[in-house]
Structures are given as structure tokens and as C-alpha cells.
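USER: Fancy drafting a protein?

ASSISTANT:
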Amino acid sequence: MKAIKITLSVITVFFAGLGLLKVLSFDISNPVMLTSLATLLLLRSIEYKNNRDKSGFLLTIITALFVYSVVIYNVFIG
């Protein structure tokens, strides 16, 4: 689980940097960055659930679902 979290964090930072430096179009880098961020939040929510922290679990799962909905809106509707 730790290796997956590190990989997702590196992907998030890498694509954020590519988008900010205009190396890659922001229309491409933004959905990839936000998807990896939301997946990272889902992994964190699983950790909260295993630690029986209900409020942390609910907060991170709601945040992850919101980020996924933003990605879907930006890619398919916007």
C-alpha cells in the first residue's frame, strides 16, 4: 500500500508540474493529476476505515468522490 501511495503522489506532482510549466497541455495534465489525487484519497480513506476513524473515513471518501465528479465534469461536459 505504501508503494502505491508513493507512486500516486509522484504522478500527481509530476503532472501538476508539467501542466504548470506548459510542457503538457493543461487539458491533458489536469484530469490525470486529479484522478491520481482522488485515488490517493481513496487509499487514505481505506486506512481510516481500518483504523476505525469514522469521521476521517467519511471526510476523505466525500472529498474523493467530489474530485472524481470534477474530473468527469471537466472531461465529458466541460
Observations:
- The radius of gyration is 14 Å.
- The mean pLDDT is 94.
- DSSP finds three helices and no strands in the chain.
